[in-house]
Amino acid sequence: MITLQDIRKVYRNGPLEVEALGSVNLTIERGEFVAIMGSSGSGKSTLMNIIGCLDVPTSGKYILDGEEVQALDEVRLSSVRNRKIGFVFQSFNLLGRQSVLHNVELPMMYGGLNRTKRTERALELLEKVGLGGRVKHKPTELSGGQRQRVAIARALTMNAPILLADEPTGNLDSKSSEEVMGLFKNIHQEGTTIILVTHEPEIAEHAERVLWFGDGKLLRETRRGSAAT
User: Fold this and answer.
1) Considering the domain 2-223, what is its CATH architecture?
2) Taking every pair of C-alpha atoms in the chain, what is the biggest distance, in angstroms?
3) How many CB atoms lie within 10 A of CB 147?
4) pLDDT tens readout for residues 170-207
5) Beta strands of 122-176 (E only): which ranges?
6) Structure pTM?
7) How many degrees, rounded to 5, is the angle at CA 132 between CA 160 and CA 129?
8) Running DSSP on this structure, what letter comes out for residue 165?
């Protein structure tokens, strides 16, 4: 499903070059639950942005479901993002003045679904994440864990087969973190590919496969029940 071949990402600031990723080779199969670990500056967020089609590599190939991503124009790239990838961020990225229901409906508005179908789908997902009784609330009236569950519901609206989560528990207490990770595990069991960036080992333990990054390179990986490679 996801293949990265010699992916390199360099940021330039005048004469200075900073290599954020250096010759990364990686394959992630459909239905995997993968955690990406590393300290700040390790390249993990840059990798996530490339996988999510939010950034392009300086060199190398990114192949998603048989399509070479760099060969797509902006219209087709946007279509790939909307159809295939859902995003969950550390800061939730919710509209504070809008209801929970409206926040979840928003991607479907851009996707062209009519109002009845949007509302039905949003209510279904909010029930799924345990917020069926909070649809009229605003995000500011919810706890951090509840807001992250709204964000997860929103990421699932278009039935994307891939869910990317960048430090999704970074702003949560331990109880809320466990609840959110339990939700991710349930979503994974339904067949969704989950790729999660974290710096917390206890969060990475929920994944089947952990990739360790440092200085823009894949240092090692572990799989549940096996030794590091």
Assistant:
1) 3-Layer(aba) Sandwich (3.40)
2) 55
3) 24
4) 889 999 999 999 999 999 999 999 999 999 999 999 99
5) 162-166
6) 0.90
7) 40
8) E
